[in-house]
Amino acid sequence: MPSEEELFASVDALLNEEPHLPPPAERARLREAAGITQARLAAALKTTTQSVKNWENGRSEPKSPRLDAYQRLLNGWAAKYPAPGTAPTAPVAATVPAAPAEPGASRAETADAPAPQASAVPAAAPAHPAVRPAAPSRHLATKRAAQPAADPRFPHGPLAVLDGDGCAYGTGGIVLDCPATTVPELVEWTLRESGLGAAKLNRYGKDSDPLVVLTAAAAVKLGLPERLEGHEQRRSLRLPEDHPVVKQVVKAKWRLTQRGFGPWARIYRKAQGRDRQCVQLAILSWDALDERSWPGVADMEPADVARVLGVYATRVITPRGSTAVSGLELMTALRPPTRAVRDEASGNWVPGHNPGSLGTEPMDPAPPEATAEHPVVVDSGWSGGFLNEEAYQWVRDVSLLTDEECTLPYAVGLDLNTAFLAAAARLVVGLSAPDHFHAPVFNPKIPGSWLVDLSHVEVDPLLPSPFTPDGTRPTGPAWYQTHTVAYAQELGYNVTPIEAYLRRETGAYLDPWHDRLKTAYVDTLADLGVTKDLDDRAFLAAMEQHKDADPAMAAVLAAIKATVKGGIGKLRERPQGRKYKEGERWPALQRPTWRPDIRAAVIAKARINMHRKLRNMAAMTGLYPLAVLSDCVVYPSPGPSPLDFLPYAASGKPQPGGFRLGPTPGLAKLEGVQSMLWAVDLMEQGYNPARHIKGGDV
């Protein structure tokens, strides 16, 4: 019988053995299942691609400490991608090493916590904080939420909401213990211990920096004021440079971006190699989450705020500012400006232009595409007019109402789902600088701006003109985007441009942006019970109740819609602030994404799409709109439902070409119903029924 000492010695020897790797073929299978190339794995483990090839064909084995990191990575992949015919390996609860002691920090417990996934980085693995399930919300029942794609480098998701008691609420119902008592400590904890972040959306892009949202109590605990007060809007205010927290950040050798320490503060250090050192903060009590874009979210419990922002981060992008900023950031994340190219002279890989992107350098627009205060206009003395491609704001003259229309008791508003997003699909835009042409032959496939006279184009007087935002007929030559001129040709008229600013390099720049936001919108509507398989009657019933079904997901839906409109609007951001002087360059002009021509293309296509539907509706039903505001159109109706006047075939299916109901971008939903007499009275007073049915300006 062996002694206790001998048995313990044998067990200790087993514990001290080096980890055993799976067979070489299984290593390759796991890597391929994760979608990771040998080159990327080699970069993560700080080795060569040839070494990875040797490990996967059995010619050699890694040595510690690289062996331990490789083992952890393979274990994580094995749990996610079990071999065919085997059951997935359940994660084993494990005690996470405690973080280094901090002043006032308590030791974290890890009972019932899933073990964090292994990091792909071989450097000293971060000691992730304790994880525990989130307690049920006190105000809002937590329902099913989209889970972020598992990434071994970011086991705790893209973001967390930090409360005053040190609890950081993450996605998936987890809670992390954060010992930080100052902003620099919070930044260090986020980067080294939290396990927060999100993988890049494009192979040439960058990972999303972790986001930490601060409640009012957390802000005060970290030495920040509970509110930012001043004469200007709070979202434009910043802490002064001599504020103690700003001094702490600078003393710890961290930096703030040019926008300073405001509601959305980015704190960073210069990147070391490929490793970014940047944390995004958002402060709820400083109005970081605008009520119009995130309805009700700022008043939710921290766990519910984390759920809302987590779903948005998973389906759209980790927020980096307002929804407008996030919409613009999403364009760049999906179409990165650079990619790795080989330098033929040195043989090294260097950043090079990524085809299909907008590149790294800002580009001045053509004078008619710019705004009146832009330097290309002021410096050149341009007086040749500007593009006026805006959304509809039109009301039919009361004198053009027919007797039959006046007898109809209702005015019903139809709102197109994310009309600008639908217009961005397969939209070819210019990618290069504009070239000036005189008397060019019109080509509908070339994006640009055309000076052309469309006053001779006859349209139905009961419909708005497709060529102007207010629906009035053009009176002479004006600048139009390609889609507007092409529609005149579609109506059967000749067009003879006088001059044009055109772009030689083109591409569907917004396609991935459209696809991601469309999927996010449709999936979020489905979470609220509005699915594609509903018939029109069931669809209207679901839409009537969807905002009450789940306030958290309804807030996500509102944020997605605001991301679309705000992102398009940011393409032509105007100067802000009292100190701006006409002719000066403002900060937005330094972005490659300051592209008013792309904004004009989206809006022109959306307005043309609207007019085409209006024309088809008139042809199929004899119905004409009372008013159009942006993406909302108001029709007289015999009943309070769109089902009372939309065209349907004998089979019951909607007629193609006109307005159709449904959850997909570009399809319509009921926006409102009013008395027809009330609508006519408004029109006589010069009001727009569409605006009042929608409940406000767009």
What does this structure look like?
By secondary structure, this protein is an alpha+beta fold. 31% of the residues lie in helices and 14% in strands. The protein contains 20 helices and 21 strands. The strands form five sheets. The protein has an eight-stranded mixed β-sheet with strand order 1-4-3-2-5-8-7-6. It has a five-stranded antiparallel β-sheet with strand order 11-19-20-12-21. A hairpin with a 7-residue loop joins strand 6 and strand 7. Helix 3 packs across helix 4, helix 9 (302-315) crosses helix 17 (551-570) and helix 15 packs antiparallel against helix 17 (551-570). The longest helix is centred in the C-terminal third of the chain and has 26 residues, at 596-621. The protein is globular. Mean pLDDT is 86; it is low at 89-126 and 135-149.
Q: Work out the helix count.
A: 20
Q: Roughly how many Å is the radius of gyration? A: 29 Å
Structural category is alpha+beta
- Strand-residue proportion: 5-15%
Per-chain topology:
Blueprint: H1 4-15, H2 24-33, H3 38-44, H4 49-57, H5 66-80, E1 131-133, E2 159-162, E3 167-170, E4 174-177, H6 183-192, E5 211-214, H7 216-221, H8 244-251, E6 255-256, E7 264-272, E8 275-283, H9 302-315, H10 323-334, E9 338-342, E10 349-353, H11 375-378, E11 393-395, H12 403-407, E12 410-416, H13 419-424, E13 429-430, E14 434-438, E15 448-453, E16 477-481, H14 482-490, E17 499-503, E18 506-507, H15 511-527, H16 536-549, H17 551-570, H18 596-621, E19 627-629, E20 632-637, E21 668-675, H19 676-684, H20 689-694
Parallel strand pairs: 2-5, 5-8
Antiparallel strand pairs: 1-4, 2-3, 3-4, 6-7, 7-8, 9-10, 11-19, 12-20, 12-21, 13-18, 14-17, 15-16, 15-17, 19-20
Helix pairs in contact: 3-4, 9-17, 10-17, 14-18, 15-17, 16-17
